[in-house]
């Protein structure tokens, strides 16, 4: 036998708890207050954003680790264009629902971090005014080359090209990725390492199988020859 | 038009025009911050002193909103009725500000003035309040019609239906208080509740207050009854085609109506300026009045952060099948209980008075000691006198004292009193529970053709 | 003096409102002009110190009857009167003649022969007096009105429900 209007009172108790708790327990808040940059500078365009890890206009390490805004391209440790993971396969461009990615494949290959010659994107543009942060590009990338950044201070007074982010501004290092999304980056690295190990194990197993097959074949030929010799 | 008259009019109305819009600005800030904290976020905290980085907890937000709305372009749709498009926000604001004048606010500069400072000392203030607050309905319809937009018209019609349906429980729950006081004069209702004799402390007063509050939420289109301005459904309902200053006028009108109806709820049920320390500082009554209004507004904001929106058929079913029967029943119950209690106390006090055989002054002093004065009879007589003055708290106090001294009839009066109140509460609750089961809206969700 | 000015202002507003209400092609404008007429009437009631009636006039006529008229107009066609339809009224001469006849032979003699008190009322009419009058001499009238209103309410609900037959028809179709 429930009290008439009991649900409303329970709801009001929950919201009161939220209200009071938001003052005392800061980790309840879904958004975090951020500090202004020490020198008070404001960006003029997206290219102004520094690319070194950690130096953002606003400290994106204070937002929650699952906060995500717009995509970024990953490169492994080293020079961005030498260790870029993206091979311009254009799957993300195809799958993007609002079609905000524009990729132009390069005409020659360069060596990537593993030493293998791969294509690279000559142009990789994302229009962040169109991007809806759905993460589909992240989900479909087979090379773990594109992941979500949590940088949100992207406003610019330039309304023509100001929100079109080019490839060089999109490239961020894997260490930066670890800094802003530690769990996700660790999982992704673990998966890449597992995949690599599995591939190598498979290659090794295939090599061994081939070797065993070759040995068996050689043995069979040797037996055949000895049989023929015997006859 | 004499100068005195103009001066008196200005003295009475200018404080209201100054105080309530500034309270409105404060309330918008409070609402945004409170709603944000309820939703585990911070709310505006950067708009403080302009051209600096000092964000005074976002207190500059109302000013920023006001400046933004003044500078926005005023867009009127091409086929819209220009006259009505202009008139609707004005017509929404004027009744809201007008009904503020009916509230019994005792501003302290009255002793410097020739006339009392309440703007409208009408004998039938309460009913004028309801009459003029009905004009907002008209303004909303005008807004919905004049925008030449299907969704605006739909929002406008729904708003009118909602406001007209909820006016009835609103007025009927106020009738309980009017019945108990015997006058429609707001000042008399306020005076009848001095000394913590608030009507909300009686069972039917409490029920009437709850009904009044729910109906007031619906009248001012607040959550959970904000279907007409549902931001996620019909864009903004009747507000849709309004931009800039006209929208600001609608917004202002809605909040001032909220203040005015909270003010009426405070006047009718919560004692209207009654509070501690009044005898030493009579100007505190305005402060207590505004504090109580803010208490009610805080509850309104709390409810907005808690409850989801009611669907339109649930809304109408709630008004007609639940609130209307229970408010009518409340009136019946209040009347019956009052008659029963009045009769009981009158019978007892007559018996006491006849048994003492001595004339009594109003202060209860006995002129000469009668031969047989039962213990506690003096207090019982005091209680009876307070009761006839409608000072129920005082009466209860005196009856308690008499009962503690062993007066049998006082004990029976108190037993009856509490019995009637307990019975009243139980009956109201059972009735509400029963009506709740009956008044569920029977609209089932649609069956989807391609389910699974 | 102020009373006279107020009376004339309110009377002019009332007459103008009523004229606009009957002459305007746009029905919504007409209804709102009618509501201005009601508001002016309420002001006139206030001049007669009948506060309760003034409040009830606003509450009932503007707040309820006006809204009802608006809802009814929603159901009609050609509400805004924008089309260039020409409404010729053929009997306008006889209409004017009838109106003048009513004014000259019925209203003016009645007004001039009415014996209205020129001095102030002996007491200010109050809601309490009204209530007493309703309970004591006119209680039967009150109850009959209540019955009438209840019958109208039930009739409205029954009329809006529709018959049983129509429901079955729609089920078959």
Q: What key attributes describe this structure?
A:
heterotrimer; A: 231 residues; alpha+beta; Alpha-Beta Plaits; 3-stranded mixed beta sheet; 3-stranded antiparallel beta sheet; 6 helices; C: 173 residues; mainly alpha; Four Helix Bundle (Hemerythrin (Met), subunit A); 7 helices; globular; disordered C terminus
Q: In terms of topology, how is this protein built?
A:
The complex is a heterotrimer of chains A (231), B (452) and C (173).
Chain A (H helix, E strand, L loop, with lengths): L5 H19 L45 E6 L15 H5 L5 E5 L4 E2 L5 E2 L2 E7 L8 H5 L5 E4 L14 E2 L1 H4 E3 H7 L1 H49 L1
Parallel strand pairs in A: 1-8
Antiparallel strand pairs in A: 1-6, 2-5, 3-4, 5-7
Chain B lengths: L2 H36 L22 H11 L10 H18 L25 H9 L1 H12 L3 H32 L4 H6 L11 H17 L25 H24 L15 H23 L5 H45 L20 H12 L3 H13 L3 H31 L14
Helix pairs in contact in B: 1-9, 1-10, 3-4, 3-5, 3-9, 5-6, 6-8, 6-11, 8-9, 8-11, 9-10, 11-12, 11-14, 12-13, 13-14
Chain C lengths: L1 H22 L3 H21 L3 H24 L17 H22 L13 H9 L3 H23 L2 H9 L1
Descriptive notes:
- The complex is a heterotrimer of chains A (231), B (452) and C (173).
- Chain A is an alpha+beta fold and 231 residues long.
- In chain A, 39% of the residues lie in helices and 13% in strands.
- Chain A has six helices and eight strands; from the N terminus they run H-E-H-E-E-E-E-H-E-E-H-E-H-H.
- In chain A, the strands form three sheets. A three-stranded mixed sheet of chain A has the order 6-1-8. A three-stranded antiparallel sheet of chain A has the order 2-5-7.
- Chain B is mostly helical and 452 residues long.
- In chain B, helix 6 runs antiparallel to helix 8 (203-219), helix 8 (203-219) packs antiparallel against helix 11 (312-356) and helix 11 (312-356) runs antiparallel to helix 14 (408-438).
- Chain B folds into two domains: 70-309, no CATH class; 335-357 and 373-438, no CATH class.
- The N and C termini of chain B lie far apart (76 Å).
- By secondary structure, chain C is an all-alpha fold.
- Chain C folds into two domains: 1-82, Four Helix Bundle (Hemerythrin (Met), subunit A); 92-111 and 127-161, no CATH class.
- Chain C starts with a helix and ends with a helix.
- Mean pLDDT of chain C is 83; it is low at 166-173.
- Chains in contact: A-B, B-C.
